[in-house]
Every structure is written in C-alpha cells, then in structure tokens.
Amino acid sequence: MSLRDRWFSSVGGNTDSEWGFAVFLDVLDGMDYDPDSSLYNETGFGHSVLRKAMLATIERINRLIADIPDKARKEREEGLDCRSLLNFAVTDGHSVVCTRYVSSMTDEAASLYWSSGTSWQEDESMKGRYRMERRDKGADIVLVASEPLTFERGEAPPRLDFLLGTVKDSD
C-alpha cells in the first residue's frame, strides 16, 4: 500500500493523526473525489461519501497492520501492543463524520461522546463548568469529545461508534 505523492508530501510531521488524515485524503482521491477541488465548496462531498471514505481508511490501516513482517509479528505476540484505537472526526464544511474504532474483537474502543442543544454555556453556579442548554427540540450545536462533556448527575452522555451530522451555517 502506498500514498499518492501529493498526500505523502502533504504530511508535515510524524503523528499518527497526520498520517491517518493523509490516508483518508488518499482514499477520497481514489474514490474520484478530489479533496482540493472547488467543485465541492458549495455542497461538500456529503455524509455518505465521507462515511465510505472513513470506513475504507480504517480498512486500509488494518491491512497495513496485517502486513507487518513476521519478525515484528512475533515481537507483537510477545507483548507489543499493536491494536489500533482510532477516533476520527472529518468534515467537508457541510457534513461531519466521527467514529471510534478498535482493531480487536475483545477490547472496547476508546470513548467518544456527544451532546447537542441550543447553546454551550458556563454554569453560573460553578465557575469553569459548562453545560449544554436545550431551549427547544432543535440542535444548533453538536459537540463531540473523547471524554464526557458534562458531569451532571443523572445525565449520562451517549456513547457512539459512528456519528453523522450536517453543519448548519449561522446566517
């Protein structure tokens, strides 16, 4: 497996996030959706395309791990942890896709929480603590985080494996 030169050379550092995003862009490009094209400025790629590209990115990372040479595989069996714990969030400016994933049949994926409402406000009774306000049934804001967003008693934040959303412009 390799990356197209344009995505390989776009990586400025050596973090797993940068390389994971380069793989994601390469997958989009391979699906004939050019991430640099202005064709998608008005409409974005859409959540279906982003979701398919994200799933293909995770599959590609799994293939990379499966291709680890036998010597490294033996070291892995002797205690090296080669699980992939992948939290991704991508947007095209119109749709958002977030996911949590672990490449293990027995371990649980890293946490991913979300909260939605009409505004994210500091709790007046507790300085430095915030809470989601819900003035109506609509959701102007969706926040996604790897840890619970609030610690309000009786309000367990929902956990998720995949989140699809639409970006709403503030006109």
Give an overview in words.
α2 crosses α3. β4 and β5 form a beta hairpin. This protein has a three-stranded antiparallel β-sheet, with helices on one face. The chain is α+β, with helices and mostly antiparallel strands and 171 residues long. The chain has four helices and seven strands, in the order ααααβββββββ. The N and C termini lie far apart (44 Å).
Keywords:
171 residues, alpha+beta, three-stranded antiparallel sheet, two-stranded antiparallel ribbon, 4 helices
Distance between the termini: 44 Å
Number of helices: 4
Poorly predicted tracts of residues: 153-160, 166-171
Rg, nearest Å: 19 Å
The description of the largest β-sheet is:
3 strands, antiparallel
Structural class: alpha+beta
Return the average pLDDT rounded to an integer: 79
Number of E strands: 7
| H/E series | HHHHEEEEEEE
Strand order of the largest sheet: 1-2-7
Content of β-strand: 15-25%
- The outline comes out as globular
Q: Fraction of residues in helices?
A: 25-40%
